[in-house]
Amino acid sequence: MGELLIENTIIQYAEAGKTRVLLDFADHLSNKSKIPLHSPTDDLTVMSLIKMLLQRYPQISKGTEEAENIMESIMINTLLAAFLVKTSLPVKVLEIGCTNGIMSYSLATILGSFHKRSELCCMSDVIGNTSQNQWLDKMALVSDVPELSLVIADYEKTPLASDYFDIVIINGSVYFQEPFQVIKEAKRLTKKNGLLLCYCCNAPLLESSFCFHFQNREEYYVKNNVKIMTVKILKKEDEGQGYQNWIYKVQMCLEKAEQKLKEQPEPQEIGPIIEEIDGYIDQAIEREELDKKVQLIHMKEALLDEVVRYSFSGHRG
Questions:
Q1: Whole-number Å distance between alpha carbons of 89 and 119
Q2: N or C: which end of the chain has fewer CB atoms below 10 A?
């Protein structure tokens, strides 16, 4: 389990003796947004914005099961702010699972403060406070509201356009019946180089599904049964020649492995090839290249069978 450290002008995440700086309020040269990171005056800054949300969280979450989730809220707010300081342009953000509106309040407050032309789209599969949807109540408390919309739809299949959102947040405080499909839909909706964030709160199936989809993810353990994961989304159609090069490299790897099998190699010769194949299997899963994944797995199994046969035979010849 990790720890969120807020010290002076730095927010960082520490786990297993290692630390990662999430937001450095003294790094003014990296800030391209319209509000300063830090200032000795009482003007609006990124630092004062996060502190304000920290102070308001008990009131916003009062009487809910999420009242104790203040550290998760700070983490998500910090990760969002770290993305927003990199641009002066408005951004489009989607929250999947906004029933109680607690996270929506923070998202709307941050986006509206950075750029009022930013868009926040919140999605729920229920509507109205009679169905325990408190979203409208929370939105009424936001001072600087961005362009705001509420969509009622099935989480697994939405009416929204592909590659539209700069940031997509899967709010795992909501129960998803088919988390694997929700993640696939979230990926479809995220722009090239966009940020996909998954908040898992007592949601082991959602967590394992996200881990299966994305190998190159960042993970943050805030406390037991709570994890926040992020990944930068790439699109096949945006990879161009890079994608074709990847296909070529995979094919060369498969052909090299097949040739090695014909030579009846010793186990020490097979190990490096299996390690290379494992790397391509992870990439194939992330790229959703199921055919290549199957080919790579079959080749790996053939190589492992060769190792077993060598072990039983004792030696060659």
A1: 11
A2: C
**Residue 131 binned pLDDT confidence (cut-offs 50, 70, 90):** very low
Structure tokens at 277: 């194949």
**Residue 231 has what pLDDT?**
93
How is residue 248 written in tokens? 């070529």
On whether the CB atoms of residues 240 and 280 are closer than 8 A, the answer is no
Q: Which amino acid type is present at position 42?
A: D
**Contact status, residue 95 vs residue 118, Cβ threshold 8 Å:** no
Looking at the domain 3-233, which fold is it? Rossmann fold (3.40.50)
User: What are the residue boundaries of the structural domains of the chain, listed by start?
Assistant: 3-233, 239-313
Q: Taking residues 200-207, what's their average pLDDT?
A: 92
Instruction: State the pTM of this model.
Output: 0.74
